[in-house]
Structure to design on (182 residues):
């Protein structure tokens, strides 16, 4: 699914671009994911897990998402560098086609500048345009910053999965499942 490029003004006065990923972004997207996974314990992978992913596999992922009517990926670039991403996955099955799942990452240096909010607004608009009734996402225990953002946009916790993630230090984290009704 394609996304039309859009300029946004960040809270610090800097300009950012929301746009679809490009094939030539593959290495930069992998780098972005490694950076964000290294900055927090609230994502589902460790940075080194991205070392096994090739640029070619990321290029294939980009292509499949751009060509799919059931996926929307948005990158946020500041000064030409990708600093945030979000993706929205629409369900195809008749029984679940009323729902869409999303994920979002923003590099720490760019937290609290409005990038997450801008991407959420675009994902909500895409869901409304498609007639989606429920948006859903998961977040990990302790990620209060993300929870605050999600609740700001009307998401509510509807369930939790105890011990869903086990960290290298042996610590277990719950995973919370949230929904937003449109």
């Amino acid at each position: 699914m394609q996304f039309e490029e859009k300029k946004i003004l960040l809270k610090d006065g800097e300009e950012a671009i929301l746009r679809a990923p490009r094939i030539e972004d593959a290495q930069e997207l992998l780098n972005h994911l490694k950076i964000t996974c290294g900055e927090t314990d609230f994502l589902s992978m460790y940075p080194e897990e991205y070392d096994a992913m090739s640029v070619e596999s990321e290029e294939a992922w980009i292509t499949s998402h751009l060509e799919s009517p059931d996926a929307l990926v948005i990158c946020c670039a500041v000064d030409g560098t990708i600093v945030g991403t979000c993706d929205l996955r629409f369900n195809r099955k008749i029984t679940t086609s009323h729902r869409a799942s999303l994920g979002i990452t923003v590099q720490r240096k760019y937290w609290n500048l409005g990038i997450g909010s801008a991407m959420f607004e675009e994902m909500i608009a895409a869901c409304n345009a498609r007639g989606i009734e429920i948006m859903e996402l998961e977040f990990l225990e302790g990620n209060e910053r993300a929870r605050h953002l999600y609740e700001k946009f009307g998401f509510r916790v509807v369930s939790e999965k105890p011990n869903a993630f086990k960290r290298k230090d042996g610590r277990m984290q719950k995973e919370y499942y949230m929904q937003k009704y449109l």
In short: Helices lie at 26-39, 55-67, 115-130, 144-152. The CA atoms of residues 24 and 59 lie 8 Å apart. The chain has one domain: 6-133. The beta strands are 6-9, 15-19, 71-78, 81-90, 99-106, 134-140, 156-166, 172-181.
